[in-house]
Amino acid sequence: MKERSYRRAVTTSLLVVATPLALSFVAYASGTQLSALPATTKVPMKRCILDTPSARYNHMTYLKQRRDQVVRDGSRSGRVAPSLMSTCRGCHGEQSQFCDKCHERAGVRLDCFGCHRY
Amino acid sequence: MTTVNPAPESTQRAPANLLVPDRKLLQRVLGSGGDALRQCVQCATCSGVCALAAELAPLPRKEMLWAQWGLKDRLMADVDLWLCHECHDCTRRCPRNARPGDVMAALRRECIAHYSAPRLLGRAATDPTQLPWVVLSCALLLGCGMWLWDATGTGARELAARGARIVMPFSPQLPHGLLIALFGTVLLFDCIVFAVGLHRFWQALTASSCHAPTETRAAPKTSPMGAVIRRIFWHHDFARCTEAAPRRVSHTIVLFSMLALGLVDLWVLTARFNPLRNGLVYPLGTTDPWKLLANLAGVALIAGCILMTRDRLRRRLATAEAGARPTGTYCDWLLLGLLLTMALTGFVTEALHFMRADELRVFAYLLHLVTVLTFFVLLPYSKLAHVAYRTVALIAAERQGQRRPVAALALNNERAP
Q1: With an 8 Å Cβ cutoff, are B283 and A52 in contact?
Q2: In the CATH scheme, what is the code of domain B10-118+401-414?
Q3: Nearest CB partner across the interface for B252, out of A10, A23, A54
Q4: What is the predicted ipTM?
């Protein structure tokens, strides 16, 4: 490899390595960061199904359990009836404001709404 | 033992000046790649063809002689050992097939094992039969950490933390706090081992009369440290080698991809404390610049490792064709293997995550973590320790002036007045 092209390649790769850091500073300065909590309709905390931290880490398991309960056991019993249309949406109004906000940002694919309508 | 730096009055007494060989050194060098050492007849072809050898203090001829004699003290305090970048110009042209390049590599390994503490781990890192035990210990360490985090509720507390930053760990059993604690401890251990080893190494280098500063050289324009960093950064020494010119490219790729991956790791692991970030900080989105950089660097690391492997296999074939026994440079293969395994298990984990194979994903992630842990535990004893040792040796060489007169090198030592 010629000295000149070698130097050019190394400089380019250094720029590539430094890009994310630079972009992070830009994002910080322009304030385009995600808020800590997704938007929900204001409701008293006592009605929440899970407290925020548990919901954060366990909502996927919770939803799958409720799904199995409804689809396999045919039961809609529980403190909050497992129903997307009639109960979930009561507090968590919009898919774009509630689910997608974190999921899109984190690159975690949602496959709920291929079948279900929010 | 040899007195490397005899004081003038002590040279009058014979016992202090006796050269006492270290037979074990010879055994170890013979056993770890330098098995053709005994072929050397000191013709000095190697020093003649070496592009990195100083005009008046050539290598590797004198190192070959010292190794044959088993003069360990002299070799362990030898800067020139580290000036060699293993291009094998000498190996190719050696008329006796003594493979000086491999001997130099074996001596450098010996140097790392000699200075690093505890020696037990140093020897374990150079012995292939010990590798399963090291890996098992690392797996056990990780398991203990997981159990401790679970039993004390530290993990649950971390997951329940409310704050401005949301961190979703890749697996709830392996929260970032555990990873920071575990890898932080191992890194601290590495730093201590490096500090002890480099201190001993530097003492030996500066005490050795082989490297007495010479006043003939004008004061350098820049600091030795800056000069060395530039030299390493632009791979100047690799560029001077002719036989292994492609290694400049592969070494650059591996070096910079490892730096990039280290940077991403730091960014991710410190996300919880990073004032630049708030909101959902982990996982990173698919198009997040950090994620893209990590993937790019991972691919580059694999490519660089493959280039290095190809280079080593070619040389192995050439050695076999020349009728010599192929070298068993376990340390080189161990490092290449660990790097490749780290990168591949990382990519497999990522793929399984996208394929939504959750149990397999966690299993692959555990494999990845055990490999990374093994890498960090063996770091100060492995081939990668050359990052520290070579840098220190190059700084010593820059400080002393590389092209020093031969009188300062040999005459003090080898001829008693």
Answers
A1: no
A2: 1.10.1060
A3: A10
A4: 0.78
